[in-house]
Design brief:
Radius of gyration: 27 Å
Strand order of the largest sheet: 18-17-16-19-20
Structural class: alpha+beta
Strand content: 15-25%
Largest sheet: 5 strands, mixed
Shape: globular
Distance between the termini: 42 Å
Helix content: 25-40%
């Protein structure tokens, strides 16, 4: 393991099993956990019989989930006592799982191989001396203790993710000599994917399988794919042959289960998360369904405040129901993932003031700098500065030259709210800000532009000058200030 990853792993391991946590006898209430389920865990080597209660409170239960069209039960041991104490000590899981949009560019590779741990969270053995901390009682009064780290412990996801990353040779977790070569390595808790050329993916897959045999790791047969061009992974249906992605059939099926006229508060909470996930895959802007998002947020907030019960029925207003229906239909489509050019075509700086808006466009091929700007109309001057910044982004985007089409655009703004909304494709607080950003993103999509956004300090933003003096023509002094700011930002990079 890489030194930094090893230090973090050791720290989390000590928090999970070490002597740093307080241990005290707990009161034991009745249990409804089936004895047959407990004996099944014992038969599979996950649990064993124990002589009495442990020193931490643990609550066993099962949940029913759908997998590949079939229902199955998943066992969870909620280690409530340990989780509460780790929370008081300030433990925060460090699981570097990114937004789904960060994974989609892998579809431009030739192929991919995927693996998923068969035992999932139960791949980590609990040291014998600490198994007393994972004891539970079934409905028949029998005591059991787990031999493997369960789902339900707050440290389990981080330990599982690290185990998978090390086994796969992820460059951020292992030393350079043991890292996977020539492939992109993606880890999602206990799911692994290599993407790249057929030769490189095949080589690293064989190495991973050899490591699995050596370390007694097993894979789920249904999620084991070798150098595939079509497959499902983390809720996405991937097609490497035509470089397109879409929400997986299982994700779409879960979305379609929700009654968009009247359903429970818990179902609507799940629907909101799934729609945001599917929107990022299908390239749908959630901000295009602003009222539906506002309504779902209101339902979730009422759940969080305890004003609603999870199973309480919620009747959805007709206008929201229609918007949700359109949103559900729009996410169930396939889209092409544009492959970014090797070099950025243009960098655009955007800024706004209470006086007007300004933009500076820097062509990376010719070195040409274009300055645009205009005064705000009187009715817009009453808007909040965040909304003006978003409107400035829309105005500058609409003035992009045709040569940017099909290229790579880098957008720099000095407003953190606008930068965040561009990344999320949504602002639930302000319809003006939301609609302006969605309008800019829609125009960029029509131009087939691959874009990225970056926040910069106001003093480093060359568009600050044209936004404050948006009169045509600019004075020679203000133009020189703008060009000087551009040179200072790029240094020797700009021709």
């Amino acid at each position: 393991m890489a030194p930094s990853a090893r230090r973090r792993f050791d720290d989390v391991w000590d928090l999970t099993f070490g002597p740093s946590l307080e241990r005290q006898a707990v009161s034991v209430g009745s249990s409804t956990f089936s004895g047959d389920h407990a004996r099944s865990l014992c038969d599979h080597g996950v649990a064993s019989r124990a002589g009495g209660p442990g020193l931490r409170e643990c609550v066993p239960f099962t949940v029913v989930e759908e997998k590949e069209g079939n229902l199955r039960q998943r066992f969870i041991l909620w280690t409530r006592g340990a989780n509460d104490e780790l929370d008081r000590k300030g433990y925060k899981a460090q699981v570097p799982v990114g937004h789904i949009s960060e994974y989609l560019s892998a579809v431009n590779a030739e192929c991919a191989s995927t693996r998923d741990f068969k035992t999932g969270f139960y791949a980590i053995e609990i040291p014998a001396e600490f198994r007393r901390d994972f004891r539970f009682r079934d409905a028949e009064g029998e005591w059991w203790e787990l031999e493997r780290l369960p789902m339900g412990h707050c440290c389990a996801p981080e330990l599982m993710h690290t185990l998978a990353a090390v086994a796969a040779g992820h460059p951020a977790f292992v030393k350079a000599a043991y890292a996977a070569k020539g492939v992109r390595t993606d880890i999602w808790i206990d799911n692994i994917r290599y993407s790249g050329s057929h030769a490189a993916v095949g080589r690293e897959t064989r190495r991973l399988d050899a490591t699995a045999v050596e370390c007694s790791l097993t894979w789920k047969p249904s999620d084991t794919r070798n150098q595939a061009t079509r497959y499902d992974f983390i809720g996405v249906a991937w097609d490497h042959e035509i470089h397109r992605v879409s929400p997986s059939a299982s994700l779409c099926a879960k979305i379609m289960k929700t009654d968009l006229r009247c359903d429970t508060a818990g179902a609507l909470e799940s629907l909101g998360g799934r729609l945001l996930h599917a929107s990022a895959i299908a390239g749908v802007f959630p901000g295009s369904y602003w009222f539906a998002v506002k309504y779902l947020r209101r339902v979730v907030n009422s759940l969080n405040r305890g004003c609603r019960e999870v199973h309480e029925p919620v009747c959805i207003p007709l206008s929201v129901s229609k918007e949700l229906t359109k949103w559900v239909a729009d996410v169930q489509r396939q889209r092409e993932v544009l492959k970014p050019p090797a070099k950025t075509t243009m960098t655009v700086f955007v800024d706004a003031s209470l006086t007007g808006w300004g933009g500076v466009m820097v062509d990376h091929f010719t070195g040409e700098v274009s300055i645009v700007g205009q005064q705000w109309s009187w009715h817009r001057r009453a808007l909040h500065i965040n909304e003006l910044e978003a409107l400035a982004l829309l105005e500058v985007t609409l003035m992009l030259p045709e040569k940017v089409s099909g290229g790579c655009l880098h957008v720099c703004v000095d407003n953190t709210s606008v930068a965040g909304v561009v990344r999320k494709k949504l602002c639930a607080r302000s319809s003006v800000l939301n609609n302006a950003v969605v309008g800019a993103l829609t125009h960029l999509r029509q131009m087939r532009v691959v874009f990225s956004v970056q926040w910069v300090k106001s003093e480093d933003n060359p568009a600050d000058y044209p936004s404050r003096v948006p009169l045509t023509p600019m004075s020679h002094c203000d133009m020189e200030k703008t060009l000087l700011a551009v040179r200072r930002f790029f240094g020797s990079e700009l021709a």
